[in-house]
């Protein structure tokens, strides 16, 4: 397998994270948010984003999967569910990437049933072309073409998540 040179460098990602954190801090000024990371993919983005927020933050996670290697199975599995009571809270869902939208839509609808005061979504990457379910995205880092990317939390077969940058992944032919 081949990992191309950085598609988004650590520096580009860092700048975007700061920009998103500033917007979020302004929008929620005077409020506390419950930041919910969708693992495993969002772990790096989540950690960088929350440490740049200037508002009170409570943290929780959901562990979900829908992907096998490089294709979505279209079926979302929840392996770990939020432990915080979200009723009346300002929930900010944080994920690495939105592709078909199936996973985020499923998670969003589940959380809405628990009646949070508000629910917004923040994602680093958007593969717009591939969308099959419409999900409202409130904060978005980068729009990217329809190519499989790894690094900065994103995996291929659970590998490459530790890369500090994002690269396009190509299978050997
Ligand atoms: P969706 O349900 O929107 O199709 O898929 C969302 C999930 O699929 C993401 O949270 C991510 O885990 C995985 N995914 C989608 N596109 C990519 C990609 O280009 N690279 C990697 N590593 N994972 C992806
Ligand atoms: Mg994910
Ligand atoms: Mg994955």
TrEMBL record:
An example Gene Ontology biological process: hypoxanthine metabolic process
Principal subcellular localisation of the protein: cytoplasm
Annotated localization: Cytoplasm
Keywords: Cytoplasm, Glycosyltransferase, Magnesium, Metal-binding, Nucleotide-binding, Purine salvage, Transferase
Pfam families referenced in this protein's UniProt entry, alphabetically: Pribosyltran (PF00156)
Record Gene3D superfamilies: 3.40.50.2020
Main EC class the enzyme belongs to: transferase
This enzyme's EC code(s): 2.4.2.8
Catalytic activity reported: IMP + diphosphate = hypoxanthine + 5-phospho-alpha-D-ribose 1-diphosphate; GMP + diphosphate = guanine + 5-phospho-alpha-D-ribose 1-diphosphate
Cofactor(s), names only, from the UniProt record: Mg(2+)
Pathway entry: Purine metabolism; IMP biosynthesis via salvage pathway; IMP from hypoxanthine: step 1/1
InterPro entries per UniProt: HGPRT, Hxn_phspho_trans, PRTase-like, PRTase_dom
GO cellular-component term (any): cytosol
Phosphoribosyltransferase domain residues: 11-156
A single GO molecular function term of this UniProt record: guanine phosphoribosyltransferase activity
SUPFAM superfamilies: PRTase-like
Assigned protein family: Belongs to the purine/pyrimidine phosphoribosyltransferase family.
PANTHER family: HYPOXANTHINE PHOSPHORIBOSYLTRANSFERASE (PTHR43340:SF1), HYPOXANTHINE-GUANINE PHOSPHORIBOSYLTRANSFERASE (PTHR43340)
Official protein name in the record: Hypoxanthine phosphoribosyltransferase
Organism: Dissulfurispira thermophila
Gene this chain is encoded by: hpt
């Amino acid at each position: 397998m081949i990992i191309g040179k950085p598609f988004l460098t650590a520096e580009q990602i860092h700048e975007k994270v700061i920009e998103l954190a500033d917007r979020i801090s302004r929008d929620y000024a005077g409020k506390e948010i419950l930041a919910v990371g969708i693992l495993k993919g969002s772990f790096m983005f989540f950690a960088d984003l929350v440490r740049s927020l200037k508002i009170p933050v409570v943290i929780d996670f959901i562990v979900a999967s829908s992907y096998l290697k490089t294709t979505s199975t279209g079926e979302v599995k929840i392996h770990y569910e939020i432990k915080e009571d979200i009723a009346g809270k300002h929930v900010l869902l944080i994920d690495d990437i939105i592709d078909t939208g199936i996973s985020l839509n499923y998670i969003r609808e589940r959380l809405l049933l628990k009646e949070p005061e508000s629910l917004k979504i923040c994602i680093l990457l958007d593969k717009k072309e591939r969308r099959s379910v419409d999900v409202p995205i409130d904060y978005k880092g980068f729009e990217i073409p329809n190519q499989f990317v790894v690094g900065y939390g994103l995996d291929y077969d659970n590998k490459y998540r530790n890369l500090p940058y994002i690269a396009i992944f190509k299978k050997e032919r």
